[in-house]
Amino acid sequence: MTYLAIAAAVALIALNLLVIISVFKSERSVGAKALWAIGIALFPVLGLLFWLLVGVRRVR
Fold it and tell me: In what residue span(s) does the Cardiolipin synthase N-terminal domain sit (predicted)?
């Protein structure tokens, strides 16, 4: 069970880093990027989900 928790934590950290990179590559203002990055860092699970649901602007 411990290895599963470690694997989940590593996966969450990796996903958060990818999302923060995605935030900084977006076309938002510097302030908005900083707020998104801080929010994702402070609330890793909720910030990640919120960025994926609301923050990503999909081009259609």
Answer: 14-55
Instruction: Please state the pTM of the whole predicted model.
Output: 0.81
Would the pLDDT of 55 be above 90? no
DSSP, res 34: H
Give, as one character, the DSSP assignment of residue 57.
-
Cα–Cα dist 14/5, whole Å: 14
DSSP conformation letters of 4-22 = HHHHHHHHHHHHHHHHHHH
